[in-house]
Amino acid sequence: MTMQTAGIHHITAFVGDVQRNADFYAGILGLRLVKKTINFDAPEVYHLYFGNEAGAPGTIITFFPFSMGRKGRIGGGQVGITTYVVPVGSFGFWEQRLAAYDIPVTKVTRIGEDYLSFADYDGLRIELVERAEGPQSAWSFGGVTAENAIKGFGGAVLYSTNPAHTADTLSRTLGLVQIAEGDGYIRYRSTADLGNIIDLKADPVPEGNGGKGTVHHIAWRAKDDAEQLDWGRLVQSHGYQPTPVQDRQYFNAIYFRETGGILFEIATDPPGFARDEAPDALGEELMLPAWYEPHRAAIEANLQPFEIREIGVKQG
Asked: In this structure, what is the dihedral angle of CA atoms 97, 102, 103, 105, given to the nearest 10 degrees?
């Protein structure tokens, strides 16, 4: 059996203070908070989802904010860089905007493409790349208009402790196609028009440590529950031990750790984030799965309040 994922579904990371996290991704980058819920395995911790206007697969970055958590170290077995795609011609806007918020930016080139490279408040490494493909975002916030807004993921840069094995998993298991090699990276492409370009660092990277400022896992797309079951059988046939299907309310998920140390998830596109909130009200209320509703008061009491707000620029 051969299969091919459409690309990235979402990327999940550990961060620190919840308000600073919201300020960076909504207030500065202009993404929409599409869901405010909790870590189902640790209900004392938020699980926040940011994406385009609908939180479409290929646009979603999610966070576990934990201010008391340890600082992580980016390294092998992780997504080293999360890449966002912006409209062609918008680099000037983003350079000026990031400079206005005192965020240092470096221009880098990789496999013939130019990137704006920077870090968020917790040290997560982010890039912007201009590409024509992919629909424009319909979300505008805090001075980021739709004509300049982040469309979604351009892709990701993977750091592996065993690149040869990770390369095999990307191509043979996930069905990504190698399209280029250079500058110390191997480039793969999936079929979607967002979240479709994966660069694997060709040399082994020393193992990183999880914690604030690191990515926990990267999730790949399955079109529905039936296909996800097929993915589970395929992954198992390739020598991995995927988890049973996990109900994440807005998608179903299975997980496995590939041989290079990176935690992979395969997540279903449906049902999406409008299953429990109206599309024009996404992210406005704390949403809990049914099994946690009886404990809402205690859960809310343990969570730090935060708001989605416009972030002013220092004057003078």
From this structure: 80
